[in-house]
Queue: 2 jobs
Job 1
Amino acid sequence: MPNAILVLNAGSSSLKFSLFADPPGGPELRLRGQIEGLNGAPHFIARDTAGAILDERRWADGTNLGHDGAAHHLVEFLQGFRDEYQLMAVGHRVVHGGQAFSQPVRVDAEVLAKLEKFVPLAPLHQPHNLAPIRAVAERAPQLPQVACFDTAFHRRQPELAQLFALPSAITERGVRRYGFHGLSYEYIASVLPQLAPEAAAGRVVVAHLGNGASLCAMAAGRSMASTMGFTAVDGLPMGTRCGNIDPGVILYLMDELKMDARAIERLIYKESGLLGVSGISSDMRELLASDAPRAALAVDLFVYRIGRELGSLAAALGGLDALVFTGGIGEHAAVIRARVCRDAAWLGVELDEAANEAGGPRISTASSTVSAWTLATDEELMIARHTRQTISPP
Ligand SMILES: Nc1ncnc2c1ncn2[C@@H]1O[C@H](COP(=O)(O)OP(=O)(O)O)[C@@H](O)[C@H]1O
Ligand SMILES: CC(=O)OP(=O)(O)O
Ligand SMILES: [Mg+2]
């Protein structure tokens, strides 16, 4: 029976999974899938490497399956492969690694206890990242489990990019900018040199636009700045998160509306962003299909904020050589890419409309001084590689 690595990637609206075989040349995908729409219209799909559907299920609109329900369904599906593979490790995406973890780590009880401390810093993710680790540890305590962090890729950012202008006593407690989506950015940094060698060696902004959304400025593949900060609520407006707001708003909510920390947490993580502005949905597909003015307003704000943050990150890099789109929206919503690129004309981005409609990968014209791309991210492959390396270093 061949050895296999199972990878779990719990996002804010989805649970993605992959099974990799373990040949000497590095992890090789065998099957992958996801349960998306966890907060509204859950949809499970699993495919083999050729893209053929192995299994699919839809739940009724409004079903709140949640991450636990998704994990339960996934375990049942994976039971069907018990006799085909020998599981050698499970690799997990863990969104927050704080100051303590700047590379993947094999999880034991001590590590798990440290990771629990970050739950308040990533309430939409960390609990769902850690629950399966605990469940697997209970059922198979000998099975190696590896935590791979969204924050790790950003830990080498210049000091200035990580600092808030707060007194040093607060900074020293770990209150600093971390940045997230690091596994996605690391993957893009690993494939860009083959597609655009010159740009990859230069100044690149990657836009990871999914239910969570952020931008990362990279110089020669190294993270230099990110729109996300101490938590994944900062930066761009997202499906249900507000992105950056004046901290004075929080004080106003406390003083004038008498909201406590939990109520504010709910507001800024779960009731804001595309959902809050539109009053309709957190799902970009629904907003683009709607003719309600508030749906259009939410999309307009999303695009406007990306444009402003893009300018900020280009300034941090001292210019721009390439712009890359990824994540659920970045990979599939040509209209959003087109609008962002048109707004970025001043930076030297010239959109190739036909290439963009066709899905890229290059979506800028040959004469564009800044090249633009759309690439499918692969956080799961990065996790599989890190997991393999962590359980048996070369
Ligand atoms: N064809 C599409 N057009 C527009 N948006 C899409 C499309 N497909 C997926 N999306 C968006 O991508 C989001 C999910 O992105 P993804 O990166 O998978 O999410 P997560 O943050 O949970 O990892 C959905 O909320 C949806 O808005
Ligand atoms: C960090 C984050 O927002 O992740 P996701 O986009 O998967 O929700
Ligand atoms: Mg994601």
Job 2
Amino acid sequence: MDTPPRVDNPLFFLDYDGTLAPIVDDPDAAYPHPEVPGVVQKLRDRFPLWIVTGRDLRSLGRLFPANAPAIGLHGAQRGSTKDADPPAFNEDTLAALSQMQSKVPSVEGLHLESKPPTFAVHYRQAQNPEDAQRRLQAWVDTAPEFLEAIWGKKVVELRHREHTKGRAVRDIAADHPDRVPIYIGDDVTDEDAFEALADIEGACTIKVGSGDTVAQYRLPDVDAVVAYLKSYL
Ligand SMILES: O=P(O)(O)OC[C@H]1O[C@H](O[C@H]2O[C@H](CO)[C@@H](O)[C@H](O)[C@H]2O)[C@H](O)[C@@H](O)[C@@H]1O
């Protein structure tokens, strides 16, 4: 797979964990690469840019010192790193999420990340991650059909099937018809966005790290993402 080209007239979509911030054991300590806040600030002076994350935007704001427009909760929340309201989920979704949260299996080392009105279950620090994953799969199988399980990097989350990063970035790209979208991401929910942008003329989709992907290009790690972004300054 080729390294990504430098695109004229870009519209940036940047995933957070694993793209702007290295993956670490503690989700509450996932600070951005030290150069990222400054680079994002400078890019924003020249180009439209959105951070697109599975995180709740308030939690992102605690980690990320610069102000930037952002999509949170895998497409369900829109705001910025400094200002965002929780998304308005319907009653059925709220009730189902609350019921599923009350039934999360009790497994040593699981970490429940609160992202009101939803949550993520991390098993990176479980004593036996394979066993934890099996028990979480059994729990996920009890979810109603309208909730979809997303298995990320040692984490599982439930989202409404209608909320995807793909839908969110398509909507934003439609507001910028004169711009060429660039999407950089490392995880499974970024694949929705890669697919959603595939038929936009010239769009550039970039997978960070190894693993199967529908993206056109690849960068090896967060350092390489920073170097690529700096090529626009
Ligand atoms: O869409 P993203 O910005 O990539 O967010 C996806 C999830 O990232 C976070 O979890 C992941 O990163 C943690 C910190 O490096 C790591 O400990 C964890 O194992 C990873 O799964 C975040 O905590 C989740 O809320 C995001 O949905």
